[in-house]
Write a structure and sequence with these properties.
Number of helices: 5
CATH topology: Rossmann fold
Largest sheet: 5 strands, parallel
Number of domains: 1
CATH superfamily: Dehydroquinase, class II
CATH architecture: 3-Layer(aba) Sandwich
Helix content: 25-40%
Order of helices and strands: EHHEHEHEEH
CATH class: Alpha Beta
Number of strands: 5
Strand order of the largest sheet: 2-1-3-4-5
Strand content: 15-25%
Shape: globular
């Protein structure tokens, strides 16, 4: 199984930005945790992060041609604004799990709208870094 992890805007600032919301674990630590978990599960994983919406769209489209079995996506703030990311996911037709480190439903009202959730077969919120691992498991179970 081959999974692509996509992280959007500001996820690279984990451990620095709003640690009371996102925790103290760094982005590098998140990546290491994901890689070790996938190795133990015998899953090939690629991890990508960008602060640019178009780059995220390009990566999703590329995933179609590289034949990924699943996508885990944390679009960051693009969750609430990007129809382009939604359309790219729909076009790719790759099973997708949406992840949010914080529980966005318990935050500002604007964070309650997720365009990605209109495509993703599962959304995991408020589980911290563990949410990524739960998302990987959901893709494994679905495959």
């Amino acid at each position: 199984m081959k999974i692509l992890i996509i992280n959007g805007a500001n996820i690279n600032m984990l451990g620095i930005r709003e640690t009371n919301i996102y925790g103290k674990e760094s982005y590098d630590s998140l990546n290491k945790t994901i890689q070790e978990y996938c190795q133990n599960k015998h899953v090939d994983v690629d991890i990508y992060q960008s602060n640019h919406e178009g780059d995220l769209v390009d990566k999703i489209q590329e995933a179609y041609f590289k034949k990924y079995d699943g996508i885990v996506i944390n679009p960051g703030a693009y969750t609430h604004t990007s129809i382009a990311i939604l359309d790219a996911l729909k076009s790719s037709n790759i099973p997708t799990v949406e992840v949010h480190i914080s529980n966005v439903d318990q935050r500002e009202d604007f964070r309650k709208l997720s365009y990605v959730s209109l495509y993703a077969f599962k959304t995991i919120k408020g589980q911290g870094i563990k949410g990524y691992l739960l998302a990987i498991d959901a893709l494994i179970e679905r495959n």
